[in-house]
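We emphasize that the prediction below concerns an isolated chain of 374 residues; any contacts that depend on oligomerization or on bound cofactors are therefore not represented. The input was used exactly as deposited, without trimming of termini.
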Amino acid sequence: MRIGTIEPNVPVVLAPMAGITNTAFRRLCREYGGGLFVSEMITARALVERNVTTMRLIQHHPSEKTRSIQLYGVEPKTMAAAARILVEEDHADHIDLNFGCPVPKVTRKGGGAALPWKTTLFEQILHATVEAAGDVPVTIKMRMGIDDDHLTYTDAAKIAKDAGVAAIGLHGRTAAQHYSGDAYWGAIKTMKELVPDMTVLGNGDIWSGADARRMVDETGCDGVIVGRGCLGRPWLFADLEAAFGGTATPVEPNLGYVADAFKRHAELLVEFYEDENHGCRDIRKHVAWYFKGYAVGGELRSALARVGSLDEMDDLLAQMDREAPYPGEDAEGQRGRAGSPKRPTLPEGWLDSREVTGQNMADLVDTESGPSGG
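Result of the prediction step, given as a token string:
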């Protein structure tokens, strides 16, 4: 897998996930296996305005040798300005652009997975950002389209190629599907055939190293993007590295292994926030993901979901049977909320034309009001 001059040792990308893929989680995943590890989504306008939270989110640990940042924006000049900040102030070695977010608060304004429908604006954003980024490679992550009647990925691939985008990541679902049902890997195969000389990354339903190998074999894509599959399972990157190295044996962790990973994640969060209480508050949302399927009682799970210090965490983890074995399928599969298929919320008249109106643009700009999307 090649993205500009970047050649990760494993053809795997950690998907940006808001509130998840901060420096702490990226470091944790890298301790298990290789790949390219992308920041959570950064809003271009907030970056240009140097929002304090945003400026913190773009920081990387010295151990992160390839610094990847995902930008979200809807206005070409602002996107270009944000890219120049990242490049000229040496914050990034790779910039990824978000055109895949299916969250209603984003799509109702025309952003995320809704934006590629407006082909001229999409093209302008790509050209402006690629030009501003210079030698730093720009990639995009997107979905198949808004719904089955309004697919955008083939047009978007051609536009991206002409704009000089270094790689395309395609999630094999529409915005209407959210994360429900099965990802359609056939769309990834179609895209690779459409732009065979571009790096194409497949995304959707990668729960194991075997899934990743199968996606590459079935679609011809150059690598995979992993999101929800690594929630509470940072060792998935060990599985992925092994799978691409020709080893089929996955990690089957006992409860002690999981508890150690959970504690390490908490320690890295405390270091990231420079505040023990803040770090422990953040780790609480990961409890259900880490201990999915394991013999951990409800009272202990509940206590971990209220943990306030690392010492308290040690006391709680000490109550577990560290030798409790890997529970098999009960610990695998779907993670995070899948949601259900639903009609995407879009600006009024959004689907009437593939060009942007003045009101559409006003709605779009309003989606950039926060420091981080998603």
